[in-house]
């Protein structure tokens, strides 16, 4: 297999991110893994077998498929992912956990359809906006169908409920709409409308309102609604500049909720310090710049929008996770790409990057 300079630079940051993620997952999850499953490295092994290995296979396959095929398959892929999202609510297929139904079980295979939806939406919007560039500025041909699609997806995700994923989906969609050349007035109008919708979602769900209250005043109920973010801040503060050492976190020992999920950045900073956190941020920045660079090298509009959508997904989700766990924005429950535990997320991210690899090879 031959690689151009640009395609090599795609692989290197991804390889380092995945390696870093597995390493930190093995540390962050060691206590919870032992308590829940009787094995200190359950999370690590599960992520390796059901996330990384299928992800690498999908990366390789997608790097070999000529990327224009994805444009042709955009509509069927979107319909398939929406169908999977609907199937979650079928009693014999959907798997409930912690008051939410976000998993789909098909035989021996269990996965999160919402993660698949993120990638298929990027493919669909890239195909849609690249195929009707002259109509992007039209209200009836772009804004209305755009809202219909987002509305349908939103209903399904709120029903689960999974507003965290909905916020990422909306963020990706709005960014791609703007990058495709949307009218400023349409863009501003959409932002106002979506802000109102999210405000209503917060108002009508007590746990979402509690997260907002904990953000506004984390000292009001330190052992209640603000416990999660306060424990995360303690971990970050304890790490200082250089950290307490790999594997030496105290917060992961039954103090910090979700140590392998959305809280893992706090464990990273506690063990590796602000330098470790800065290193991770640098990796995300590196990968984002590589995707932007490749998008500029290709003359294909679909490829450009796909790469930018992929960049927005990875960088945006990483920023939201890190900002939330650092107390800069309300908690969202959104995992950290490549780092948090979740086989579906890792496999789908690598699938999208496999498509990016093919674009890089052909640029």
Fill in the keyword field for this structure.
363 residues, mainly alpha, 3-stranded antiparallel sheet, 4% strand, peptidoglycan synthesis
Task: Quickly describe the structure.
The protein is built from 14 helices and three strands. With 363 residues, it is mainly α.
Overall shape: it is globular
Strand content: under 5%
Please work out how many helical segments DSSP would assign: 14
- Structure class: mainly alpha
What is the count of structural domains? 1
Could you name the ranges where pLDDT drops below 50 across 5 or more consecutive residues?
none
In angstroms, what is the radius of gyration?
A: 20 Å
Question: Overall pLDDT, averaged?
Answer: 89
Order of helices and strands: HHHHHEEEHHHHHHHHH
Plain-language structure description:
This protein is mainly α. The chain has one domain (5-362). The protein is built from 14 helices and 3 strands. It has a 3-stranded antiparallel β-sheet with strand order 1-2-3. It is a multi-pass membrane protein. It comes from Candidatus Yanofskybacteria bacterium RIFCSPHIGHO2_02_FULL_43_15c.
What topology does this entry show?
Layout: H1 5-28, H2 30-37, H3 42-64, H4 68-72, H5 74-87, E1 94-97, E2 100-106, E3 109-111, H6 113-131, H7 139-159, H8 163-179, H9 184-203, H10 206-216, H11 227-239, H12 264-297, H13 301-325, H14 343-362
Helix pairs in contact: 1-3, 1-12, 1-14, 3-14, 5-6, 6-8, 6-13, 6-14, 7-8, 8-9, 8-13, 11-12, 12-13, 13-14
